[in-house]
Amino acid sequence: MINSIKIEDVEVFTAGGDEDENMDLVEGAEGKEEQDEQNEGGDTDAIKKVDIPELQLGLQKQKTKLKDEALFGAQDDKLALTKDIYAYTFYCFIKKPNPVLVGELVIKCFFTIMLQMGIIYFKFDEAMKKEITIFRGDADLNIVRITCSFVMHLYTFPEIRLAQQMTQYALYNSHKFPEKRIFFPLLIATMKIVGAFSAEIGNIYYIAGYTTISQVIGGYVRMSIITKIDDIMAMTLTTVDIGGEYASNPIMYRRRQNIMGDLELVQVWWKHKAFNALQWLLAIAFLLVNRLLRFLYVTVYYYFLPFGIIVALELYQAPDTMRGSMCEKFTKASDCKIGF
Question: Quick one: 248 and 318 in the same domain?
Fold first, then answer.
């Protein structure tokens, strides 16, 4: 009678009467199984000894990366973009980096800023040819001037503030742009600042020279249209819902940054070799300009620019109250002789 004993995958055939030999075979098979398990355990320990240091190194690198990117990626504030061509182009650089789409939008941005600056230039050239000077006027005229200046400021200061925030976002989140190229996004933000600020300064200059209330109101309306050209240009994008895209996929960033944050940013740029020599030069220049803009925005622009019209009127003196060379600094010599 033959008995068959199966231990794992080992079969031992025994004769019914030789039990000691059978037991020796069974114990030998079990011992071999234990030895195999020990060998497998040894291999696992070896794997652990190899994997644990590598895992720790990987975790350390990940922690370092997260620590470095914490300066850039703290997402606690929403970048409140407006529905204009500059803001939407900036948005597409981050959320919709299609080269064809972005290229078309950048061309529209260049056309918009050229249109804005062209209108302002031709208005200024016309005023210079007509030799328009500051007209002080009476109380009613000056009240209308101040009102128009303040209303224009309400139009333009959100534009300039947003452009400054766009500049800050591009500097602190360069890794979120295609191939870390932030020159064009920074240029778009600069266009937005130049367009809005030029329109506001032009408004103050022109209404200071107008002599009637109707002229002041008309001049204000014309300059306010210039500030809205970027909004009008965005309306040509009939196939997209700009507001819907902003709401469904907003851009988040850390709004509060200080000078120490700028220094840490430069250190991270240097550590990760983020830019080439030319990009370094541009990035440092924009970083300094951004810090200066934030300072001037709070200390000068936001609170005091609307009063620029009052300053212009108060600093100006009528020619008939001046004599000699002082008069000629403000008006023509002939006016100094005959007055207004």
Answer: yes
Structure tokens at 8: 């794992």
- For residue 297, what is the DSSP state? I
The tens digit of pLDDT for each residue in 203-260 reads: 998 888 888 999 999 989 989 999 999 999 999 998 899 999 999 999 988 777 778 8
**Is pLDDT of 146 > 70?**
yes
| Secondary structure element (H or E) that encloses residue 78, with its range | strand 77-78
* Whether residue 267 sits in one domain with residue 207: yes
Residue 207 lies in a domain: yes
pTM beyond 0.85: the answer is no
Answer yes or no: are the C-beta atoms of 319 and 339 closer than 8 Å: yes
- The span from the CA of 155 to the CA of 310, in Å, is 19
SS3 210: coil
The contacts of residue 67 (CB under 8 Å, 6+ apart) are: none
- The total domain count for the chain is 2
Question: Is the CB of residue 66 less than 8 Å from the CB of residue 226?
Answer: no
Answer for the pair 163, 87: CB distance below 8 angstroms, yes or no.
no
Asked if residue 62 belongs to a domain, the reply is no
Indicate whether 86 and 172 sit together in one domain. Answer: yes
Element housing 137 (H / E): none
338 part of a folded domain: no
Domain of residue 127, residue span? 77-333
Helix (H, G, I), strand (E, B) or coil at 11: strand
